[in-house]
Amino acid sequence: MTVKFLFQLFILSWQSLRANLFRSFLTTLGIIIGTTTIIIVVALGEGAKRDIEAQYSNMSVTTILVNAPATDGSPSKLSIDDIPLVKEIPTVAEAVPMLTGKVNIAAGDNTTNFSVVGTYADFAEVANLEFVSGAFFTQEDEDNHNKQAILGATVAEELYGSKTPDVIGETVILGKREFEIIGIAKYRGGAFGPVTIDESVFTPYSSAYRYVLGKNGKFSFNVNASSVETLPATMDALAVVLREAHNIGPSDTEDFRLRDMGATVASAQSSSATMAFLLGSVGFIVLLVGGIGIMNIMYVTVSERTKEIGVRKAIGAKDVYILTQFLFEAFILTAVGFVLGTIIAVGFYYLLLSFDLKIVFVWWSLPLSFVITFAVGMFFGYAPAKQAASLNPIDALRYE
Amino acid sequence: MATKIISLEDVKKSYFIKSEEFSILKGINFDIEKGEFVSLMGPSGSGKSTLLNIIGALDKPTSGKYFIQEKLVSTLVSDQLADIRNRYIGFIFQNFNLIPTLSALDNVALPSFYAGKLVYERAKELLNMVGLSGRFNNRPNELSGGQRQRVAIARALINDPEFILADEPTGNLDSKTGREIIDLISSLKNKHGKTILMVTHDQNLSKITDRVIYLKDGRITNKKSL
Questions:
Q1: Segments forming the whole domain that contains residue B204
Q2: Residue A195, SS3?
Q3: Buried/exposed A346-356: b ≥16 CB within 10 Å, e otherwise
Q4: Per-residue model confidence as pLDDT tens digits over A185-226
Q5: Is the dihedral of CA A45, A51, A53, A59 positive or negative?
Q6: Residue A290 has pLDDT above 90, yes or no
Q7: CA atoms A178, A184, A189, A194: torsion sign
Q8: Do the domain assignments include residue B193?
Q9: What is the pTM for the complete model shown?
């Protein structure tokens, strides 16, 4: 069979499908939906993955987050006094307290509501903060309870209409107290433990406690183990130290919670992967059903066109010509379904984007859905095509 | 000596149903020579259809030999038979058997496509010849019965076959249209020197042919009364 012959056979298949346009469309509907599903599911999965990565991008895998669980009973004894004890554990590299609480933040005529984070000077290093202007406070500021503030990028934007305002030395009101702005942090996205960096104002721990948050602040701290290997031991040591410091008996429940960020990230990633797999399976099943749809309709077509097949054979069509023609029909149905499905997927993608859904288009979802779609289409198209090709011309001609 | 186009030597055909043998054709011998217009007659159950299928290379005999132009056809396999049907035989059926989704022109050209040399010019000439000049793009359902049979005749001629096999070509037509179709088929012999084998029930039709082959109970008989 020459290329020209194949092309003409292809035209024949196309004409047959066109003669039954609406049915052809219905046949390919399953393929359309399946293709769309796979592409969108992959994009959603990637969006979720990126979202998780962004959320935890600032956390080192050696980080342990210590906070007070939401208890119904007595308040947690977790406090700043635990920090020196924790720092004595040999495998602890750093321990940074965070006292957080939402307060009104005002500058000039603008008032917004964001978190104030009271912390230590080493926070800047631990959280890898960078500055567009100014700098972080120092241990000295901490010791002197200086009323100094570093603004996150979003806070600066809300107050001054710019992520890089020239406001070092100016005053910002946190709650009811005036603080001096000494730094503007660079935009970075993501979170550090309970702190969303861009949406926070950082002050020395003691100043935040004394002047802004007091006992209303939520206290937690980040501990960095010296290495991944020492992480489990550090977790155990932390528990021991904190139980002792808080006078918790061996049978009493802890009033603190230790979260190993590495494990948290891993479990978040694995649950997003599971989700993507589940959704992907749905896409695959839809395609499978679409493929069965193609097979069904093609069987109907073959039996409807039994006579035609008989005529074609009587006037000289070889088995392989008939087979090829019907395979082409399956191919065209699949190809058209794939193209339409892709177009619809792109439409959906932009629609979901406009709803601010976390969705990221991934190029390999196209070849992926292409391969699956065609495998399914041709797999299910083959059996009826083979049946058509192997019809006995005498029986087929006699068929009414 | 005239060329033999069709030659059957002791052709037999049996069917086995639950290991019981039903003999349909019990040894058929005849030749058809180039340019002959022969009619084949026989009552239902005489084995006429079976014989037609064998001559049309749609079926193979259980035993015996079948030659087209001295080429042994009875031993060929499926694809080779398709090739024989395509190049050597032009089929005209009782119920036209056109492809409903194709235009008249595409229907006529289709055998040439399967022969690997699609010839639209010749298809147009043939449609002109059978009197369907303005109907190239009409689908079969837009044509009358007589016009459909004309398309089928044009299709039968497209690959310039060795012989035409016409299976009750007027069976589905009224008598006037039937006569026109028979005139057209006769002209294929008279003007174009085609060899024709026509199956018919109609005594009057068989009279215009050169020779009549009678089939009864799976055998050729000389009795003209059936």
A1: 35-63+75-221
A2: strand
A3: eebbeebeeee
A4: 988 877 777 788 889 999 999 999 999 988 888 888 888 888
A5: negative
A6: no
A7: negative
A8: yes
A9: 0.71
Instruction: Kindly provide the ipTM of the predicted complex, given to two decimals.
Output: 0.92
Whether B25 is in a domain gets the answer no
Which residue of A lies nearest to B85 if distances are taken between CA atoms?
A: A316
Of A307, A314, A319, the CB nearest to B58: A314
User: How are beta strands B219-221 and A148-151 bridged, if at all?
Assistant: unpaired
Domain containing residue B162: CATH number: 3.40.50.300
Which of these, A161, A207, A158, lies nearest to A182 by C-alpha position? A207
Cβ <8 Å between A314 and B114? no
Among the listed residues A123, A262, A143, the one whose alpha carbon sits nearest the alpha carbon of residue A200: A123
Number of domains in chain B: 1
DSSP 8-state symbol, A385:
H
* Residue A67 DSSP one-character state: E
Mean pLDDT over the full length of chain A: 86
Q: How much is the average pLDDT of A230-249?
A: 87
Q: How far apart are CA A366 and CA A43, in angstroms?
A: 11
Q: Does B30 reside within a domain? A: no
Are residues B111 and A315, on separate chains, in Cβ contact within 8 Å? yes
Per-residue pLDDT for B225 more than 70?
no
pLDDT value for A57: 64
Rounded Cα gap, residues A222 and B201, in angstroms: 102
pLDDT, residue B226, reads 45
Is the confidence at residue A348, as pLDDT, over 60? Answer: yes
Question: Beta strands A63-67 and A218-225: pairing type?
Answer: antiparallel
- Is the CB of residue B124 less than 8 Å from the CB of residue B136? yes
pLDDT tens track for A112-125: 899 999 999 988 88
Does the residue B39 lie in any domain? Answer: yes
Amino acid B19 reads S
Minimal Cα–Cα distance from A288 to chain B, Å? 30
CA separation for the pair B35, B13 (Å, rounded)? 28
Nearest CB to B115: which of A19, A307, A316?
A: A316
Question: Which residue from B79, B100, B114 is facing A315, i.e. has the nearest CB?
Answer: B114
